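User: I'll paste a sequence; please echo it back and then give the predicted structure.

Assistant: Echoing your sequence first, then the prediction.
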Amino acid sequence: MSTVFGKGQQGQNEMTTQRRKNEANLRLTLQYYSKYGKLTEDHSLEQIAPGLASLEFMKRNCPERTKLEEFCIQSGQYFEFEQYKQGDIIFHYGDIGDKVYVILKGEVAVLVPRAESEIEAEREEIGQAKLPFDFEMFWRNKKPSKQIQIEAQLAQQNSNLYFKDNVCMFKKVFQFYSGQSFGDVALISDKPRTASILVTSDQIYLISMCKKDFKISCEKSVLEMNQTLDYFVTVFPCIGKMQISKFIQFFHKTDFSPQQWLWKEGEQVKFFILILKGRVEIKQQQLPLYQVSDNSFIGHEEILEGLTTRQYGCKILDNTIAYLMDYEDFNIARKNAPEIVKVLIEKAKLMTSYLERRKEEVKKGQANVQPLYQPVERRLIQDMFVIKSPRNNEVRSNQPKYLSYFDITKFNKKKAQPNSINQQQSISEDLYFSKEKNVKTTRSPSYYTQRVSPMNKQMKEILMKKFKLNVRFNAMKSLKISSCKSAYDLRNKDRFKTDASIDN
């Protein structure tokens, strides 16, 4: 218990230090906006740009390839100055989102509706009290003083939304301070406000930006938020978008480099992650146990069990992109998203059981690392781009190549389809010497004369004379016809360059 208290006290001190640092960075910005209300002159915008550049809101929404201070100068003209006092409600639960706010100085509390069981239990306890009922006196020793102060301020709102029958209907789940922003979730999702904002400091000074200007100047943030919501809907398919949007507002995306330790065994529990893309390895006593990859939660087991130290080490293996949530933020987010917490508990049980099984395997000497979830397929380049070799029975291939006359003639002869001729048909001179018949000149003249029946003597003599005189001429003519046909089809004279290696 003392460890938890010490950790809470340390976190409170760190928050106070950061708040004072932010107020110092924003002092000049507060002076300009409180004096002019809205800045339009370039000189004034240049003066407050360094202060705005220190805000996480501006860093998160700055477009890529744009200098941060230039973005602050452009966006600074859309902000308007606003001021509230302690006990004021900046906006109510269920309101339509119309502005986003950045705190220059002061604090606010984030209020959400209480569970019905808590309300009924408190009503029964108050019902047993003596009349007249004094709210602050009744709860003085039963609730923290800060909580009593907030509930007393809500009682002054004179609204049944916040206080009914001496019972407070809302509870504080978070607080924002100087340098932080709030109200952008409703603008991005176009949903009603999911919380009320109560001013808890004496005074608060803010700058606000309307919904229209926010979507113009912070287009990157709107796009990324919608993409993030779509991604988490796939991670939690059975949970409503409203509950998911409440939960993911505490996540922030971050990159990790290979061989980096997220945490080591025995270190303090500070956060958990959801791996968007990448791979990590779980180790215990320097022995690898298993690996997890895309869409996997890691580090939430100890948080759900209430442990303060890590039971194992976690090391990055590949370039990894992940969503990270701090320990303190998770304790707040889990109150707004009980269904998501149930899913995380189931995943934690799976991790714990697998870890115990791997320990037993390691003791038996079976220390091979087995991935718990199959990683995304990573194909080698030679598997993605397979170069097919040309078929052996084709001269032409997909790759450019010089062809010889011999190659072209051979190819055309294979593709040519011979005509079927009836044996009773007479052979004429034109039909005999046509390229479609593909006559082989190496055969004897008697081969053709024997096939002709009937055949007169005069035609036989003419045919024999023609054959003897033109036996060489016909062979050259056949080659010439084939070559010309190929040239007509290819329409590229450069491809007819003779390949000496083939001709020889």
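Residues 405-503 form one domain. The radius of gyration is 42 Å.
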